[in-house]
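Service request form, structural biology core

Requester: graduate student, group of Dr. S.
Request type: structure prediction, single chain
Budget code: on file
Notes: please return the result as structure tokens.

Sequence provided:
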Amino acid sequence: AGVLYRKDGKLQGSSEYRFAEELECVPYRADIVYFESSRGCPFSCSYCQSGFFKDGVRYYDLDKVKEALAELAGMNIPIVKFVDRTFNANEKRAAAILEYLLTLKCDTVWHFEIGGDLLTDRLINLLNKGNFQVEIGIQSFNEDTLKAVDRYCNLDRLCKNIGRLTIHKHVDLIAGLPFEDMQSFISSFNRAFDLKADMLQLGFLKVLPGSKMRNNKAIIFSGEPPYQVLKTDWISVSELKELKKVEKALDIYYNRGRFKLSLEYLLKLYPSPYSLFLHLADNFKEDIYLPIGYARAAGNMFFACKEKADKELLCGLMRCDYYFSGAKGNVPQFLKPFKYYAKDVRKKCGIEKDENFFISEVDYITREKIMCAVIKNTGRVIHLGEL
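Core staff response, request fulfilled:
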């Protein structure tokens, strides 16, 4: 009862409902909590609604913020995401909150959206001490693009600060901005990827109601929420479709962190990061937008890249990635170790034929010298020298 849905534009279902008589009987669990310590933004980026309001930034009372954070810490919620548009807009206040969070005893991860070029030595040192993660909007490395959207950022300082952070880092790009053609965006993509953040989000411009971007006639966007860009005077429909495929491949192979060793090797074989992810996207035999499990993703990577790569080496690295990722189920058949690996390892370690093992590390920089570790049925780790 009480479930409604739309059909042919009309509400269907029953609007009858009843209250839970005792709220204590309603289970409460939250894996992510969104928390705000301020509202508004000091900046006026033309694609963002936050810049539409001229009231600046309004802050909640700091003591009340600390009280609420202590309560959340007591609940041991896995992730608390601050929704402050630019958490470090006020350096003194941001430092006070970080210092307080460092005193709390909990396993919670605290997530912040920050201005990367605004980071000070003090804030960087505090962030590196705690169970924190940050999201940093780059949006573009095209200076003309940033100027056109009223986004003023010291890109050199931003990149330097990202490199100084030792915590989980998430950086963002936006496709479809003014003056950003395909080649310009690919350049932005490659430069952002080279920052080695833990996640790179390739987003697409949303022309939101109330944003100044709505007045830009060079941008065509969907009339339905989320009002996503369809094409611009600088980038075509087909080019945005290509970027959509690359976004999916980037999420599968990079952002989920399941192919770290394989990617590090393959990136040396392709002209640029973008070219590798486009190649991976183009070689999916099925629709890339269907649900993709580990085996299907790994299979696509291996068969897409095997002609360019050392197949034995790629297989070994992907096998390592499989175990390090914590993937469940049997190892895909094409990732089984090559016979000469098994023969050499068994001989050197005296491993019986009925004992299982796998190669968990491979030194692929010096390809003639393959270093590995072997895990036997007993769980004992044997560190091998050169094979």
